[in-house]
TrEMBL record, chain A:
It comes from Chelativorans salis. It comes from the Bacteria. PROSITE patterns: ABC_TRANSPORTER_1, ABC_TRANSPORTER_2. Belongs to the ABC transporter superfamily. Residues 4-234 form the ABC transporter domain. This is Sn-glycerol-3-phosphate ABC transporter ATP-binding protein UgpC. Gene3D superfamilies: 2.40.50.100, Nucleic acid-binding proteins, P-loop containing nucleotide triphosphate hydrolases. Keywords: ATP-binding, Cell inner membrane, Cell membrane, Membrane, Nucleotide-binding, Sugar transport, Translocase, Transport. SMART domains: AAA (SM00382). The lineage of its organism: Bacteria, Pseudomonadati, Pseudomonadota, Alphaproteobacteria, Hyphomicrobiales. InterPro entries: AAA+_ATPase, ABC_transporter-like_ATP-bd, ABC_transporter-like_CS, ABC_transpr_MalK-like, ABC_transpr_MalK/UgpC-like, Mo/tungstate-bd_C_term_dom, NA-bd_OB-fold, P-loop_NTPase.
UniProtKB/TrEMBL annotation, chain B:
It is a multi-pass membrane protein. The complex is composed of two ATP-binding proteins (UgpC), two transmembrane proteins (UgpA and UgpE) and a solute-binding protein (UgpB). The lineage of its organism: Bacteria, Pseudomonadati, Pseudomonadota, Alphaproteobacteria, Hyphomicrobiales. CDD domains: TM_PBP2. Belongs to the binding-protein-dependent transport system permease family. This is sn-glycerol-3-phosphate transport system permease protein UgpE. Its main location: membrane. Gene3D superfamilies: MetI-like (1.10.3720.10).
């Protein structure tokens, strides 16, 4: 168990800088999720913490020690890879035992620790099998098992669930969270799935093109996004953005963001904004109404499924509470 | 696959049997010739059924041979073929490992240098190689038979291609698990390559076994002769009469080890294929 500190961490591949300086202090036992779109540098950041990628500049501390120059094995970390990276010719037992074997643990201790990990993950029946004789979900558990038998100070996960089907993903998500709570191991978890990020994270790092746009607790990030990117990325359906002037706020330089769930369809008379309904998706519990305002922007409204569904082409009014308005400068930063 | 029924089935089988007969017949004749006496061979027509001198001819070949006992030559060939096969596999595994997994200056250059040697088979470089072997005092020795043939661009290339298909994450997982490079090589890369190794072993063993020109050059002492060149040495020079039954027995004995290797490794090979990993 350990704290992790990243200090102005940067990474370049050749001339191109892909991580532009990330700072974070991670508390002991904290579950940090790194979330962002494809190619924003999540894996690169994680791999620098793992020691699989050299650090171009900045510092990585694990448990208070500067580990920039340390090999992965000397950093006291364990990593779960997206494709699991199980050793194909070894049994599940040997896969989990390999790290301990190299560390020179006694046979008895290895057997005991593997058995304990296998018990926690419910993979005892498979210990003698080869990875190819397992289903995707079982392989995923083995990969987790390989990480936890080593009792590392930090877990690193790189999209560990993205090869699983939707249902299994939800189940494993819960299990990972529970496991991490029980073991209390500091964890860094990379995903591009915001639901995973919201549900797993104690705090999340929202990455945008190599920058940590915002770091904070999931609900805090949702309620109070610091940039246009974060507001658009976290929350589904994404935040609507309008030119601030179209509702007579701010200046031409500014954008107004409102989340679909904060919008209401009201009569066309006493409203902030008029819009024409483009189509409505009734999903049962909720209805997504896609509308278009006069200046051409599309605006999505999310309302209870029990509310009446407006007709296509109908002219409606959109209303919202003042406190839900988010104003951004066009360069992306938040104004209020 | 096209399914064949009725007449087509019989026809294809007939074709196969005829083909087999054509290929197998000379070998059968050699076998027959190795079981009869010299006078019977030279007097036409040659018999088509085995005679009664099987034991006699074969023991004569094995124990005394003509220049050197065949047993001795078989042993020499085995040492040479095994030495070449294992040596080539060991060296090419290591060089492929270095080329794929390490970044060092001149890596590409070395790869291309190795690749270039593909164009230099033994026959092309035989004179300088002989010169070098002679200077090292390797004439009439196993090291002289083996070392000059050991470097293998083909095998290096094959292992390189295989290593490139091994996911990077595997090497990274091993690194996180604490495996140093050589440990990763032994514990993970080598076991994963065993199908390739088995296949290469068969090919290289036969390559080594069938070497003719090089042993002919490097060995003058009959007790260092290998079997393939030994057969040629048995042919009479001048007016001596050839002892054909013994020569035929020797030929058949020379064919045996490669066949055994193919059959033996085939099992491992197929098992490897069935167990192959994704
Ligand atoms: N070895 C490399 N050499 C050069 N560029 C690289 C290398 N690895 C990654 N990159 C670049 O760095 C950027 C970040 O890559 P990274 O793999 O961290 O993205 P990611 O956020 O993990 O994306 P994904 O969600 O698709 O996995 C990408 O633009 C990628 O092209
Ligand atoms: Mg990635």
């Amino acid at each position: 168990m350990a704290t992790v500190t990243l200090e102005n961490l940067k990474k370049s591949f050749g001339r191109t800088e892909v991580i532009h300086g990330v700072n974070i202090d991670i508390a002991d036992g904290e579950f940090i999720v790194i979330v962002g779109p494809s190619g924003c540098g999540k894996s690169t950041l994680l791999r620098m913490v793992a020691g699989l990628e050299t650090v171009t500049s900045g510092k990585v501390f694990i448990g208070g020690h500067l580990v920039n120059e340390r090999e992965p094995m000397d950093r006291d970390i364990a990593m779960v890879f997206q494709n699991y990276a199980l050793y194909p010719h070894m049994s599940v037992f040997d896969n989990m035992a390999y790290g301990l074997k190299i560390a020179g643990r006694s046979k008895a201790e290895i057997a005991e620790r593997v058995a304990a990990a296998a018990h926690v993950l419910q993979i005892e029946p498979f210990l003698d099998r080869k990875p190819r004789e397992l289903s995707g979900g079982q392989r995923q558990r083995v990969a987790m098992g390989r990480a936890i038998v080593r009792k590392p100070a930090v877990f690193l996960f790189d999209e560990p669930l993205s090869n699983l089907d939707a249902k299994l993903r939800v189940q494993m998500r819960l299990e990972i969270k529970q496991l991490q709570r029980e073991l209390g191991v500091t964890s860094l978890y990379v995903t591009h799935d915001q639901v995973e990020a919201m549900t797993l994270a104690d705090r999340m790092i929202v990455m945008n093109e190599g920058r940590a746009d915002q770091i904070g607790a999931p609900l805090e990030v949702y309620a109070n996004p610091q940039t246009v990117f974060v507001a658009g990325f976290i929350g589904s359906p994404p935040t609507n953005f309008l030119p601030a002037l179209s509702v007579s706020r701010g200046s031409t330089e500014e954008l107004l963001g409102i989340r679909p769930e904060h919008l209401r369809i009201v009569g066309p008379d006493k409203c902030e904004l008029r819009a024409r309904v483009v189509n409505a998706e009734a999903l049962g519990a909720e209805t997504l109404v896609h509308t278009r305002i006069h200046s051409g922007e599309y605006v999505t409204v999310r309302q209870e499924g029990s509310r009446p569904v407006p007709e296509e082409g109908e002219e409606v009014g959109l209303g919202w509470a003042k406190e839900n308005e988010m104003l951004f400068f066009t360069n992306g930063a938040r104004r209020y | 696959m096209v399914e064949k029924r009725g007449a087509a089935l019989w026809l294809t089988h007939l074709g196969l049997i005829v083909g087999l007969f054509f290929i197998f017949f000379p070998i059968w004749l050699a076998f027959v010739a190795s079981t009869i006496s010299q006078p019977e061979i030279v007097r036409p027509p040659m018999p088509l059924l085995p005679g009664d001198r099987f034991l006699e001819n074969y023991s004569k070949a094995l124990v005394s041979g003509i220049n050197a006992p065949v047993a001795r030559m078989l042993f020499n060939s085995a040492v040479m073929a095994l030495g070449i096969a294992f040596g080539k596999i060991a060296i090419s595994l290591l060089s492929a490992f270095a080329i794929v997994y390490f970044r060092f200056p001149g890596r590409q250059l070395f790869f291309w240098l190795i690749f270039l040697t593909l164009m230099l088979p033994v026959e092309v470089r035989i004179v300088p190689t002989y010169e070098v072997a002679a200077q090292f005092g390797m004439l009439n020795s196993y090291s002289g038979l083996i070392f000059p043939l050991i470097a293998s661009a083909t095998a290096t290339f094959l292992f390189r291609q295989f290593f490139l298909t091994v996911p990077d994450e595997l090497a990274e997982a091993a690194r996180v698990d604490g495996a140093r490079p050589m440990r990763f090589f032994w514990d993970i890369l080598l076991p994963m390559s065993r199908t390739n190794i088995a296949a290469l072993f068969v090919i290289l063993f036969i390559y080594g076994w069938n070497q003719y020109l090089w042993p002919l050059l490097i060995t003058t002492d009959p007790s260092m002769n290998t079997i393939v060149m030994g057969i040629k040495q048995m042919f009479p020079s001048g007016d001596d009469t050839a002892d054909w039954p013994v020569i035929m027995a020797t030929s058949l004995l020379a064919m045996l080890p490669p066949i055994l290797v193919v059959i033996g490794m085939q099992r491992l090979f197929i098992r490897g294929l069935v167990e192959s990993e994704k």
